[in-house]
Write a structure and sequence with these properties.
Number of domains: 2
Number of strands: 8
Helix content: 40-55%
Strand content: 5-15%
Structural class: alpha+beta
Distance between the termini: 54 Å
């Protein structure tokens, strides 16, 4: 199997709700699985990106939001074997138990530092045991488990997580855009058939968004598309599919998204607009699968520079750019058009802030789809922002690198301000 195929296959995972509450619940549930007896306390320390993204985020199988409730549900009913879907089996009774723990002051969260590098440390204390679970770098990457002061599990962590050297060591950065373009056109289609599952998962989430009484943007986007899921307008159809699914996800409806780069919203933006174009124009499924592989890989390319959690909206910027390049492919554009599209995207929405996984993600998704379609339309008519301007650079690889660097280290102070605003709202 091609190395790029393996990269996608290893990264593409289902996630129930926004990824960060899922990761918090997974960490706490794992710690709880090593303890016995009545719960005395639960504490979760996490990096700013994790803290911010889960701050007012909807939680699956609950009407509650946020870090504390995700941790409480994780200790009460989380299933560590289900990874990012750790809260899949939560019941109404579990919600009551979780709230009781919070009311008793037994669940706390704290900020470990301002950084885009994922860090979670979950400590569960019971009348008999204490377990500490540490996660680093990716949402489910457990690096250490300590039970009653005894190290039960430990593996080497990435010591270069904050360095530019690490960026250059990423597998995806060994490839150029031209390499990726050649790969998606020539790879045996049988290697990409697993991508089909992303559309099954994400369309189920979309259908939940359309039918559920809690959604609002989904209903209006359907109205804007003439009351049809698949109209003759490919952009309005793309908007509907993409952002009804995002809304369903961020308010915590009980259907997973197929994530990429550790994010369900990234996975949605990287796929569902493409599905809209595919359906409206009656394209071949093979073309959709190849386009999706391109979308995923460009998304990954940018995200490995920006960090998995940062102060800019990777969903719109990274996944939006990946999706835009894939739109070029679906429209029979060339590599040159993809390069021009990247320039247009880099010059437009780079810098859009991420203020957590919340209802606002829906509007950011709407902006991303608009920017992608317009960037592609201009590029395919040889209208684009030239390399000399702004953060655009001599090659698409350098431009994508610059997009990522705007987030990290460029927006570290922005991250701090966002978190400070959040904490001021608690006072």
């Amino acid at each position: 199997m091609n190395e790029l195929t393996l990269l996608i296959k290893e990264d593409m995972k289902p996630a129930l709700g926004v990824t960060e509450p899922g990761a918090i619940a997974f960490a706490v549930a794992t710690a709880r699985s090593y303890t016995k007896g009545e719960i005395k306390s639960v504490n979760v320390s996490m990096n700013s990106g994790m803290y911010k993204n889960a701050f007012t985020c909807g939680i699956p199988n609950s009407k509650e939001v946020g870090n504390v409730f995700a941790a409480a549900l994780g200790v009460v009913a989380g299933n560590p074997d289900k990874g990012l879907e750790a809260l899949a089996d939560v019941t109404p009774e579990d919600n009551i138990k979780a709230q009781a723990l919070i009311d008793e002051g037994k669940v706390t969260v704290e900020l470990s530092g301002i950084t885009s590098n994922i860090f979670i440390e979950a400590t569960v204390k019971t009348e008999k045991d204490t377990c500490i679970v540490t996660i680093r770098d990716t949402h489910t990457n457990i690096t250490k488990i300590v039970v009653n002061d005894v190290v039960e599990f430990e593996k080497e962590t990435n010591k270069k997580a904050d360095s530019k050297v690490e960026y250059e060591e990423c597998i995806i950065h060994r490839y150029t855009l031209e390499d990726i373009y050649k790969y998606i056109r020539t790879v045996d289609i049988s290697e990409l058939e697993f991508i089909r599952e992303a559309y099954c998962v994400n369309m189920e989430l979309f259908n939940e968004g359309i039918s559920n009484s809690r959604t609002t943007f989904a209903k209006h986007l359907l109205k804007m598309n003439g009351g049809e899921i698949f109209s003759k307008d490919e952009q309005k159809t793309a908007q509907l599919l993409c952002n009804a699914a995002i809304e369903a996800r961020v308010i915590g409806l009980d259907k997973p998204a197929m994530s990429i780069t550790g994010s369900g919203a990234h996975g949605i933006i990287a796929t569902l607009p493409l599905y809209g174009v595919y359906k409206v124009n009656n394209l071949a499924e093979e073309k959709l699968l190849r386009a999706t592989a391109l979308s995923y890989l460009v998304t990954m390319y940018i995200k490995e520079y920006s960090g998995r959690l940062s102060a800019f909206c990777g969903c719109a910027i990274a996944a939006g750019t990946g999706m835009a390049c894939a739109l070029v492919y679906l429209k029979d554009g060339t590599l040159k058009h993809m390069v021009q599209t990247i320039n247009n995207m880099a010059s437009s929405i780079t810098g859009m802030i991420c203020d957590g996984g919340n209802q606002g993600c829906t509007m950011k998704g709407i902006v991303a789809v608009d920017a992608a379609f317009k960037s592609v339309e201009f590029a395919m008519n040889d209208t684009y922002i030239y390399n000399v301007h702004g953060i655009n650079d001599k090659t698409p690889e350098e431009t994508m690198r610059n997009m990522g660097l705007i987030a990290s280290p460029g927006m570290v102070d922005t991250e701090r301000v966002i978190v400070e605003i959040f904490e001021s709202k608690l006072k």
